[in-house]
Amino acid sequence: MSIDVRIPTILRSFTGGAKAVQGTGDTLADLLADLDAQYPGIKGRLITEEGALHRFVNVYVNDEDVRFHGGLDAKLNSGDSVTILPAVAGGAFAFAAAHALRR
Amino acid sequence: MYAVLTIDAEILEAIVAHARRDHPDEACGVVAGKIGSDRPERLVEMDNAERSSTFYRFDSMEQLRVWREMDDRDEEPVVIYHSHTATGAYPSRTDVSYAGEPGAHYLLVSTRDPELTEVRSFSIVEGAVTEEPVHVVNAAVDPHAVQKYLFGQSPTTVDYECPAGA
Hints:
Chain A is an alpha+beta fold. Chain A has helices spanning 28-38, 96-101; strands spanning 3-6, 20-23, 57-61, 64-65, 81-86, 89-90. Chain B is of the alpha/beta class.
């Protein structure tokens, strides 16, 4: 069981500079736990303290935004490809809290 | 290391035109360039999925497509730009906390004044904002063109109303 994971620039300090790594897991949550075991600390950048996927991190499984396909419970199969990209967002005013509630 | 944003006049004018067109919504996009070159070459206007006058976000699937395309072409996002439509061209607290591309120049354009467009560039790395001069190359011969822009070359001499720390 092997899943190809693409790592964005901003998280490559955890993977020793690697832009692609391998992981295992039956669900996205399991995969992130496996990645954290291999690269300690990386999970904290992807999952909030409440245990949800960080709102401004995009995770794609086989080119589908996992938000619409099960989130952390998304099922994974060997050979799947996971891509992580920090969302590009911002704006004039700090409405971050308001947007976090708008889920 | 002293950083500067070097950008073609044609690309900068297209960015400003995009910001004007979308005003009062914030406009956003990216300019790709060959990895390691620090030269922005290929402008990609992005849809602001928030369609807001105070917030912008790249649609997640569009971002995947564009980032994949850059990867295929050995490019990286050299410039990530967005506009502020009622405040100055300075990164807000939100801009700083969401800046996820440490190697990119974050270009801010303010369209709050209908005649004068403010254009400023910043490096945002781990919460630290450093302004950079904007060096425009291949400017058109029209001597009046440059006067329509206000560039913030030095933070100590430009007034802004919405500093990130406020």
